[in-house]
Amino acid sequence: MDDLLAVTGLTVGFATESGLARVLDQVDFRIGRGEIVGLVGESGCGKTTLARAILGVLPANSARISAGSIEFDGRDLLQEDPDALATDIRGRAITFVPQDPFSSFNPVFTIGRQIEELMKWKSPDAEPGSGPRRYARARRSSDLERVLELLRIVQLPDPEALLRKYPHEVSGGQRQRLMIAMALLPEPKLIIADEPTTALDVTIQAQILKLLRRLAAERGVSVLFTTHDLGTAYEICDRMTVMYAGQDVESAPSDSFFTEPRHIYTVRLLQSLPSRDHGIRGIPGQVPDLTAPPPGCRFHPRCDAASALCRQTRPDPSDVGAGHVARCWHPAQGEGTP
Amino acid sequence: MTGAAPRGRAGTLQPGLEMRALVLTVNRLVWFVPTLLGLLVITFTISHIIPADPIAFIAGDNATAEQIAALKAKFGVDKPVPVQLWNYILGVAQGDFGISLYTQRPIAEDLIARLPATLELAFVAVILSGVIGIPLGVLAAVRRNSWLDHALRVFTVSGLAIAAFWFAILLQLLFAMKLGWTPLQGRVDGWGPDPVTGFYIVDSVLAGDLETLADVIGHMVLPAVTLSFPAMATIMRFTRAGVLDAINSNYVDYQLAMGVPRRVVVWRYVLRNALIGTVTQVGLVFGNLIANAVVVEAVFDWPGLGLYAVNSILQSDYNGIMGFTLIMGTVFIIVNLLVDISHGLIDPRETG
To answer: Is B3 an interface residue toward A (CB < 8 Å)?
Structure first.
């Protein structure tokens, strides 16, 4: 399959007070064209770091990318000129839906002004290259038509009035619809949605997710969707990749992910979902300290199947089913279905 | 753009914003009189409890009891203090600030004649501090912990720590005495431009007299720089803090993640957020500026209210001191009213 995005062996560290935190350890990750992929894992497992690394917006003063590549649509983003990334990748080919729609709008500018600024630089009609010095009148009005149309598509009432409002005058659900509209406006190939619904009410979450799924599918846009909520991921993803403590452990189509998990961590993760049979069940042990992570498979201290091999060497990805890859020396065999 | 289309330009006002500014203005104006009245009572009380006897000062050592009594009656200080206060308030309400015990002229005339000189100096100093302080504050924040940031920190600490009169004398010694680049003191050589506004810079532009303009600006440089130094430091510090705050916010992260150029994000968007805090400071800075103006005017022999206040204090001239305090209080209240209004215009979340 011709992947839109292929992250290979990506290793990222963060300089912290207590030393180098190895936040991503040789992570492999891929997204096919038009595919919606969920990147799931607990808080601090590195999913947001991976998302930001793909966007190229890791904090410059603390993050170190020491190995790996990020191939996007035939270009290795890590080898590209940073200015070129800002002008024709970020906001053009790859767009972003932030976690918190409340604080992601600038409070002192109207929504219209903020969308206009985005379109000035990132409209599909904008010339590639260094960007505009002036925002030509003709393009401005065609961009405005485009914006209004898309605001109607994301089911925002009275778009003209909405553009004149300030962010605090609009509800959280509407703001996230705006964020989705803004992510679609540049006609990207990939949308990175970083926990886009955690800040919203549960009832609104479902609407937003369905909207994102429908629009992405209609337009053939790929989506990278990070979440710690497996239920949410199941709702909208074609495929899931699980991360644990900075390592990718398993990647599978959504159906076989839930029915035939192979990596022991995935099995335990699914078992930890609240259920009528056994209530809430945690995974014994703790997430490791990333400044001194365990060698080999980082899950081994908490894994009851761990062997000497697991403690020394991290397994390469191996096919365990159709489109199903796990990085486990002792994959589970059909057990652990919750 | 189509007719009903929203225009996301900077000048666009949200509907209702003018209304809010109006409500805010009326609200502040209602409080204007009580605030001023409070200020007046406090000033009056303080200047009447200090152990000084201006009448004796005017009358001289050899005055007879009758002469002193006559003087007291003339200035109204023979009555009980509450009655004096009441009479003073009545007078002020009619624009009568009393007569100077020293110059024997009506205080109001003296003050009005000298107000433009002080206001001009203060405005130039405020503009100077904003025009220099704000960009430097942004640079310090954007290049946080660079040598530039450290150098500017030394600069701001000096600005806040150095006494204005000392700095003024230092500048005089260097630029007026040693280098001879600027005049030592005064506001203009000769008579100055034809008075229209009383602001010499404006007046000499109106008169088209470039020679006088150059002379006026030359006289202005040292006092304005002295006066603006601490104000600039405050503005720079608050701009830096505001920019740092905004730069770490989610909305900046979002714009950068969407590839909007960093310089656009910083100078067009972050700055506006940062200025909310800075603008609030300008009101307070202005108060300090007025206080410093008294000293700076004395050093530079600047014929403004500050110099007048110094003379009034030295002569124990109650009416002069009170007149100065009242007029500066009024200016301070007006400046803060303007600050509040511009605050409401910058930050749409602000409600009147």
So the answer is: no
Q: Is residue B181 part of a domain?
A: yes
Q: Are B246 and B252 in contact (CB under 8 A)?
A: yes
Q: Where are the domains of chain A?
A: 3-242, 245-326
Q: Tell whether B335 is covered by a domain.
A: no
Indicate the angle between helix axes B318-346 and B17-49, nearest 10 degrees: 160
Please give the tally of structural domains in chain B.
1
Superfamily designation of domain A3-242: P-loop containing nucleotide triphosphate hydrolases (3.40.50.300)
pLDDT tens sequence across B276-304:
888 888 888 888 888 888 889 999 999 99
Tell me which chain B residues have a C-beta less than 8 angstroms from the C-beta of A160.
4-6
Question: Rounded to the nearest 10 degrees, how much is the dihedral formed by the CA atoms of B320, B322, B325, B330?
Answer: -110
Position B4 scores a pLDDT of: 40
Q: Angle at the Cα of B155 (from B151 to B156), degrees rounded to 5?
A: 120
CB within 8 Å: B259 and A92: yes
Cβ of A168 within 8 Å of Cβ of B250? The answer is: no
Instruction: List, edge to edge, every strand of the sheet that includes A247-253.
Output: A94-97, A190-194, A222-227, A36-40, A239-244, A247-253, A324-326, A318-321
A139: contact with B, CB 8 A cutoff: no
Residue of A nearest to B1 (CA): A141
* pTM, entire model: 0.80
Per-residue pLDDT of B41-66, as tens digits, reads: 888 888 777 766 777 777 777 778 88
**Closest Cβ–Cβ partner in A95, A103, A108 for B250:** A103
Q: Which ranges of chain A does DSSP label H, i.e. alpha helix?
A: 47-55, 82-84, 111-122, 137-153, 159-163, 172-184, 202-219, 230-236, 254-259, 264-271, 308-312
Residue B96 counted as domain residue:
no
Within a domain: residue B327?
no
Answer whether A107 sits within 8 Å of B250, measured CB to CB. Answer: no
Owner of token pair 């064209």: A33
